Amino acid sequence: MNLIKKRRLFQIFSTLGFNIYLPSFFKGKILQGNIKGVCVPILNCHSCPSAIGACPIGSIQNSLATLKFNLSIASYQFGLYVIGVLGAVGSLVGRMPCGWLCPFGLLQEALYKIPSPKIHIPRFMSYGRYVVLVLFVFLLPLLVLDQYGFGQTWFCKWICPAGTLEAGIPLVILNEGIRSQVGLLFSWKMFVLILFLVWMVFAQRPFCRTTCPLGAILGLFNKVSLFRMAVDDDKCIQCNTCYENCPVELKIYESPNSPDCVRCLKCVNSCQYGAIDYEFFPKKQPEKNRVQQS
Amino acid sequence: MKRRWAYVLFFIFILFTIIGLKFDEFAAVLEKSITVCLNCIGIG
Question: Which of A59, A80, A223 to probe the B interface (max B CBs under 10 A)?
Answer without folding.
Answer: A80
